[in-house]
Amino acid sequence: MITQKAKYALRALTFLARAEPGDPIQIPEIAEQQKIPKKFLEQIMLDLKRGGLVDSRRGKQGGYFLHRPAGEITYGEVLRLIDGPVAPLPCLSLTAYRRCEDCEGESDCEIRRVFARVADETRAVLLTTSLADAAKTEAPEPV
User: Fold this and answer.
1) Cβ of 116: how many Cβ atoms within 10 Å?
2) Which domain covers residue 45, as residue numbers?
3) 75-83 and 38-50 are packed helices; what angle lies between their axes, rounded to 10 degrees?
4) How far is CA 122 from its chain centroid?
5) CATH number, domain at 98?
6) CA distances (Å), 104 to each of 39, 109, 110, 132, in order?
7) CB atoms closer than 10 angstroms to residue 136
8) What does pTM read for this prediction?
C-alpha cells in the first residue's frame, strides 16, 4: 500500500499537470481543490521541490509548477521519492536492494519468485504511467 503522503503528492502533481505549463498554483488552491490539509501539503511540496519534480515562484503571482513536462514524470518516480522503494521485498528492489535476513538463498525462494512477478508488473505500470496519463479526464480502463 502507498502512504497517504504519496496519495496527496500524486493528487497535487496531477492537479499541477492539468494547469498551464509554468503557470504557478498556490498551495491554498491546491489544498482546497484536492482536499489536502494545507500544512501537510506544504511539507509535501517541499519534498517534491527537493526531489526536482516541482519548482516555485515567490510573490503574489507565485506558487508551484511542474519542473518537467507532465509526460516525463512517472508515478514510479513520485512513489520512490515519497515512500522509498516500490518493491514488495527488499531483495527485489532495484534502488535499495537488501538480502532478506531469513532467506537461505534467493534462487530457491518460492516467495521471491512469486513476488518478483508482482514487482515486475507493478514497475511496468508505475514506470510507464505519467502524470499526463493520470491527468486525462477519461475514465480508467478496467483491470
Assistant:
1) 17
2) 1-143
3) 110
4) 13
5) 1.10.10.10
6) 46, 8, 11, 43
7) 11
8) 0.85
Alpha carbons within 13 A on the beta-carbon side of 27: 18
- Which helix (H) or strand (E) segment holds residue 55: the answer is strand 54-57
The cell for 80 is 520512490
Residue written as cell 527537493?
A: 50
Q: Residue 84 — left, alpha, or beta (φ > 0 → left; ψ -120 to 50 → alpha)?
A: left
For cell 502512504, name the residue: 3
Mean pLDDT by 10 residues, the chain (143 residues): 95 94 92 96 97 93 94 96 90 86 82 90 94 76 59
Query: How many structural domains does the chain have?
Result: 1
The string of pLDDT tens digits covering residues 44-72 is: 999 999 999 999 999 888 999 999 999 99
- Largest Cα–Cα separation, the chain: 60
How far apart CA 12 and CA 78 sit, in angstroms, is: 11
